[in-house]
Write a sequence for this structure.
């Protein structure tokens, strides 16, 4: 089933096929289009989840929906369901530094929205390895780890060598000139010699969280 405007073809059956409703990528959308998409998805699903929203877009949606919520750090713009969802499982989210937190929060809030329990371990990068090691026993309790880093991206490799679960690496655009807005970090993570690491696109906290939620659900026997 779809709802076809002249500017968008909404996938209203996605949850039946995949377990998750369609997410709105807000960045770049025309104001009137964004409002209509949120209205139709809310009518169909009773909730809407959007990423990469601007404060201006958030105000547009809040003008239409009094229960809309916006987080400036993650840029998540959502209309939550009235139904309370119990968070289950365990996803550990690590950042190398505090500058990576916006991407981490996109991941964390996405995972929570889709029903997974999240534990945050921020600013545990390799420049002060003792910070990661002091948290490693808690991190090892997770069903999946998301490792978020800019610069040289070493956090993912170190984490991969210390845990027995999948590690999803997220390169960020944090770094000086030779970081190439995250390209060098991406290449470092792809070339990791640690086992069990997969890599998503630069700054893609949402994509990392989506995969982590699926792994977390499988670990709990949820399909």
């Amino acid at each position: 089933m779809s709802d076809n405007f002249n500017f968008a073809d909404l996938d209203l059956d996605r949850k039946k096929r995949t377990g998750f409703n369609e997410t709105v990528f807000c960045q770049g959308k025309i104001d009137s289009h964004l409002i209509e998409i949120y209205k139709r998805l809310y009518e169909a699903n009773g909730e809407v989840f959007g990423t990469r929203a601007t404060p201006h877009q958030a105000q547009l949606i809040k003008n239409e929906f009094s229960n809309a919520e916006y987080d400036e750090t993650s840029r998540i713009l959502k209309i939550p369901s009235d139904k309370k969802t119990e968070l289950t499982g365990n996803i550990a989210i690590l950042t190398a530094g505090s500058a990576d937190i916006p991407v981490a929060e996109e991941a964390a809030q996405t995972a929570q929205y889709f029903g997974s329990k999240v534990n945050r371990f921020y600013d545990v990068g390799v420049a002060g390895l003792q910070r990661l090691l002091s948290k490693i026993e808690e991190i090892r309790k997770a069903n999946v780890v998301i490792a978020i880093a800019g610069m040289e991206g070493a956090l993912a490799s170190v984490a991969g060598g210390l845990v027995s679960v999948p590690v999803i690496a997220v390169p960020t655009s944090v770094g000086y000139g030779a970081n190439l807005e995250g390209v060098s970090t991406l290449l470092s993570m792809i070339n990791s010699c640690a086992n069990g690491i997969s890599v998503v696109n630069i700054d893609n906290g949402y994509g990392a969280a989506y995969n982590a939620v699926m792994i977390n659900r499988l670990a709990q026997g949820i399909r």
In short: The longest strand covers residues 88-95.
